[in-house]
Amino acid sequence: MQFRLASQHDIAALSLLVNRAYRPAPEQAGWTHENSLVSGERITPAQLATLLAQPNGQVLLGCQEQRIVACVHIENAGDYGYVGMLAVDPTCQSGGLGKAMLAHAEQQLQALYGLGRSRMTVLTSRPELRAYYLRRGYTATGERLPFPLDAGVGELLRPELELEVLEKLLGQ
């Protein structure tokens, strides 16, 4: 897999990738989807354009044969780096691409921003996804946040859902 930065030219393909990974049609679902928890689009082209224009972050892409198959958003949040929107095309899941994208994101947080700590949020009703990140060195902080109902990332199907904050010390 080759890594590169996303640009405005990637918005259509990137939107399709993220929405297929998070909220796919039933016949396209990989193990990372959240269809039973949240409905609607995970991200719109307009939201992606705004995200790509932010000066304190980047969207990193993983490509195979010129096709975008994975992505992750990183952001300099001051004393830590935020990692979000990790997505792998459902047809390519379980092949190590997510692990490679996450490792690349962590390396970029260190190299570009000099950060030694990474944080992310995971839906509380996704124990398999939480376990995936714990196996990669993340630990639970004990912090919980409400689902961002006003962020335009979908509608809750289960109102009790929250986000759990996970953290990792980088370079260890």
UniProtKB/TrEMBL annotation:
EC no.? 2.3.-.-
CDD domains (alphabetical): NAT_SF
Among InterPro entries, the record links this protein to: Acyl_CoA_acyltransferase, Bact_Acetyltransf, GNAT_dom
**Entry keyword Aminoacyl-tRNA synthetase:** no
Q: Where is the N-acetyltransferase domain?
A: 1-159
Kindly state which keywords UniProt assigns to this record, in alphabetical order.
Answer: Acyltransferase, Transferase
Keyword Acyltransferase carried by entry: yes
GO MF annotations, alphabetized: acyltransferase activity
Q: What class of enzyme is it?
A: transferase
- Its recorded name reads GNAT family N-acetyltransferase
Organism, by scientific name, is Vogesella amnigena
